[in-house]
Design a protein that fits this description.
Blueprint: H1 10-24, E1 32-35, E2 38-41, E3 46-53, E4 59-63, E5 69-72, E6 75-76, E7 83-88, E8 92-97, E9 106-113, E10 118-127, E11 134-139, E12 141-142, E13 146-156, E14 161-166, E15 169-171, E16 174-179, E17 184-193, E18 202-208, E19 216-222, E20 225-234, E21 240-241, E22 246-255, E23 261-265, E24 275-277, E25 280-283, E26 292-300, E27 303-311, E28 313-314, E29 332-335, E30 350-351, E31 361-362, E32 371-374, E33 386-388, H2 393-400
Parallel strand pairs: 2-10, 12-20, 21-28
Antiparallel strand pairs: 1-3, 3-8, 4-5, 4-9, 5-6, 7-8, 9-10, 11-13, 13-17, 14-15, 14-18, 16-17, 18-19, 20-22, 22-25, 23-26, 24-25, 26-27, 29-32, 30-31, 32-33
């Protein structure tokens, strides 16, 4: 009965071969030969050894897997300079094979020609370690959809194992393996749902193989998630008066990032003094004729977005006050330092036209103050305070904001 060498432990296999040699040699003059299997990495150097017992000078021949004679009693027989005879003694014959390829795999014959020919086969196995895997995008990742990624290894022997990793956890993939004759190509495909927050998320594809000695080859990849832009106008702080300058910045996000940012004015054309430089919009020497709502718009292949800013320019007669930075969502009330004098015999009387740029003086039967209410967040996306007269101030500011 013939036993497979794969089923016999290495130590037991060696002992069995030695026992065979002993059984074959019942006399002190019996000759025998023994060969050892070799495993080497592709491109490396293999040592093929033939061990002799009771050698008396008989002919020793070494042949390749195609039964071509490499060496005859130490003399080269095949013109392949990759093979070299490095040792020939009565106990050991050894050759080397450099730049090993998978085509060199197979059984190398150690033959001893005596009255009875003896031979042993040294099996050469070649491992092909994988290169660093590559990652390809089979389906673009769009917000709300799925990303389909393929990790590929074109060549290894035996077939390498691929694993997808994200945040330290393995992502199960669909594995495909193809036998290319001497080597194998392997791929692993994953499909994962993606949102805007996943843009730039880190993944890795890892290759494991016996030839790597417990190490791994890793390809790192970052998700590229496409999504429509978002737009936000950053307004100036405080009140804008005639003669001041306006500077707006349009903060744009998106993937891909929009290349063109468009500024416009609702129901009107942009002022002649308007200067646009990418996301920045500026107007020098403001006047009330520039009042209105200005738009910033941006778009990419996945959508468009816009934000607006309403400009309200005060005339120079408006009292200049320094407003504190709001720290809560409740309105801030500021009182002017000069009260209005009592006129008890008069009803309500309007002094001048009531509009946002003119102080309105109202006489009542009690002391009256002017109040400033600063709303947070700003009312109608405006970041200037509102001038009004009202008692009690807290109630009026709450209603206004």
């Amino acid at each position: 009965m013939k036993l497979s060498s794969d089923l016999i432990p290495a130590a037991f296999s060696l002992a069995l071969r030695c026992l065979v040699l002993v059984l074959l040699c019942f006399t002190p003059h019996c000759q025998a030969v023994q060969a050892e299997n070799v495993t080497v990495l592709e491109g490396g150097t293999a040592q093929i050894s033939c061990r002799l017992q009771n050698y008396d000078g008989s002919i020793v021949v070494i042949q390749n897997p195609r039964r071509q004679t490499l060496f005859f009693n130490g003399t080269r027989a095949l013109k392949d300079d990759r093979f070299q005879m490095v040792l020939f003694t009565p106990r050991l014959v050894r050759i080397t094979l450099t730049n090993v390829s998978v085509n060199d795999e197979g059984g190398y014959f150690c033959q001893l020609y005596t009255d009875a020919t003896h031979h042993q086969v040294a099996t050469l196995s070649v491992l092909v370690p994988p290169e660093t895997p590559t990652v390809e995008v089979k389906q673009d990742a769009v917000e709300g959809g799925e990303a389909e990624l393929i990790c590929m290894l074109p060549r290894s022997k035996p077939a390498a194992t691929l694993r997808w990793i994200r945040n330290g956890r393995e992502i199960p993939g669909v594995v495909s393996q193809q036998d290319n004759g001497k080597t194998f190509s392997v791929s692993s495909t994953i499909r994962i749902p993606v949102e805007r927050k996943d843009n730039g998320a880190a993944l890795s594809c890892e290759a494991y193989h016996p030839a790597l000695g417990g190490q791994r080859k890793v390809r790192h990849y970052r998700l590229d998630v496409y999504f429509a832009p978002t737009v936000r106008i950053i307004p100036p702080a405080g009140i804008l008066r005639e003669g001041d300058s306006l500077s707006l910045t349009c903060s744009v996000n998106g993937n891909p990032l929009p290349r063109n940012i468009q500024w416009s004015k609702i129901n009107d054309t942009l002022p002649e003094r308007a200067e646009i430089s990418g996301p920045t919009f500026q107007i020098s020497r403001l006047s009330q004729t520039y009042n209105g709502t200005y738009l910033c718009q941006a778009q990419n292949n996945y959508g468009r977005a816009a934000d607006h800013y309403t400009l309200l320019v005060y005339d120079v007669s408006v009292i200049t006050m320094v407003l504190p930075t709001p720290t809560s969502t409740k309105p801030i009330i500021l009182l002017s330092t000069t009260p209005t004098l009592i006129t008890p015999n008069h009803g309500l009387e309007h002094k001048g036209n009531m509009h946002p740029h003119t102080h309105t003086h109202l006489e009542t039967n009690m002391l009256t103050f002017f109040f400033f209410c600063y709303c947070h967040p700003p009312l109608l996306s405006l970041s200037f305070p509102v001038l009004l007269r009202c008692l009690p101030p807290r109630r009026c500011c709450d209603e206004l904001c």
